Model the fold of this input.
Amino acid sequence: MEKQKFTDRFSTVFADQNFFKKQKRIALKNCGLIDPENIDDYIFANGYTALATVLSEMTPEDVIKSVKDSGLRGRGGAGFPTGIKWESTAKQVNDEKFVVCNADEGDPGAFMDRSVIEGDPHAIVEGMAIGAYAIGAKKGVVYLRAEYPLAIKRLQKAIEDARKANFLGKNILGSSFSFDMEIRLGAGAFVCGEETALMNSIEGKRGMPRTRPPFPSVSGLFDKPTLLNNVETWANISSIIVNGAEWFSSIGVGKSKGTKVFALAGKITNTGLAEIPMGMTLREIIYDVGGGIPNGKKFKAVQTGGPSGGCLTESMLDTTIDYESLTKAGSIMGSGGMIVIDEDACMVNIAKFFLEFTQSESCGKCVPCREGIKRMLEILTRITDGEGQTGDIEKLEELGNMIKKASLCGLGQSAPNPVLSTIKNFREEYEDHVNNKRCKCVVCEKLITYTINDKCIGCSACRRSCPVGAIAGLPKEKHTIHEDLCIKCGKCFRSCKFHAIDKTSIAKEQK
Amino acid sequence: MYILYTFRNILKIGVAMGTPLCILEEKRKQAKSRLEEIGYFSDTKIYIGMATCEIAAGSVPVMEIFKNELKNQKNIYISQKGCAGRCNLEPTVEIYQKDKEPVKYIQVTPEKAKTIIEKHIKNGEIITEWMGK
Done:
């Protein structure tokens, strides 16, 4: 029947490619299949059936029950059961309520939300209209990053087209239900992806988190009950209504139902977006869907959840993808970033990268996050500069755990995760940096020694490129680098065409 | 009074017939006829990836080539599409032909696009080495 077509259209087009074989598309069901700027294409692909079904045959209670039974959980990362959120917002008695879509995708390397909005904007419009019907809201807001101009354009067009076709506006499809929505642009602050900071930002205040409780379902946007969900969560709603809660809950494992979209990035053969059913193992994603590590390199770690998540090692590759298992393994589901790291990467440096990000994105409202992360970053910088002191690793752990416990919002509570998980899984690398002043992977600049080997033909290209005159040697004779003068800028390494310069990191004697 | 009563009843029936699902069905028919007008049901359909990522990989000139070269061809529908998720293989182009398996070309450049038009669209030769695996 039509129902079957709805989700299977994707596999009939793409199933012959290994990359898509193991995927199951629900949130991305139309991405790559329809013209996102043509509402007719969406309607013809069974679009707005869910909204019409809800308005014709279901009471708001039925809708909430359906979402609850489906077992759908928040796809923004924390995994709060969506149905319960809907129910508690619906219970509130207030003349005005809001539905909000969180499309402030800030994780470095993540682009799931952008793809959904650019590929299938009407799915968000439809999902939000259904949510609004269920909780009794009349107004919806999509908080979208200003960095996504094409997504803004397409969603704006989708909203206008939907309004013209009476999928939005007054008395939608001849029913008594009225609902309209608008886009609010975010200026690219990572903290505004946090729900309370996001609402502050929509209200025109500074993007800083509020204390909870009261939760947004009680007092959210403009102090009204607000239902706030992530793009991917909204994109799942129409399929749940059309195909039924049972169908949705039959996909997945344990308490995690349905699918999750991951943005595969880093050292992986097939970079891209993959929507996989919950319960698949990390190994299957990385090797079967992702095609493994390129250039014959060895797998070292996989980072899930962006700057809030942790690094998982090879021994954890058989962890299944679901909220509980990933948390147990020491990472989080997160919004769907998945960065694969190969043997060439220094874990201390990666932890430093994420911490630099969270440190600059901290809003500064609460002390543990503002001061604590800064101190952690200072220690990490010290370690990667070869000035690590005994006890630094322990200090990082102590600070990290303190920040996690004492911070106000998710940013601070999760910011130490990359550091803590790399300390847990790659402690020897930290110790190597601190005790031996050595970076095994030859990444941390200050710990690198440049030497010239016998391949040198004396072309003097390196000597001329050196900004501090640390290289000496006569033309056509082997050159030498004065280590005391070298500032480790790497210019000579890049200028040499004969592979005559070695980049090594040698253990230094302990002081 | 009676007339008013009957009138009200007729109105009620009218409302019952126009459930949102019926209205949607009506809209779907209209959408179908509009799609027919723009050639959606052509024997050959060409979809070109036009999300931010695909545009960054160079899909705009590819789109232009397909549009310009096939301007005067009938029974061909060219459309943009969102991102299917194959970042390292973009820009992607999919060609659906009636009663045939859809063909997916990867990393399409303007030059490749011209060859695809000449070989595949005009002569029905599928260029297997440019297809995704």
Notes: The mean pLDDT of chain A is 93. DSSP finds 22 helices and 15 strands in chain A. The radius of gyration of chain A is 26 Å.
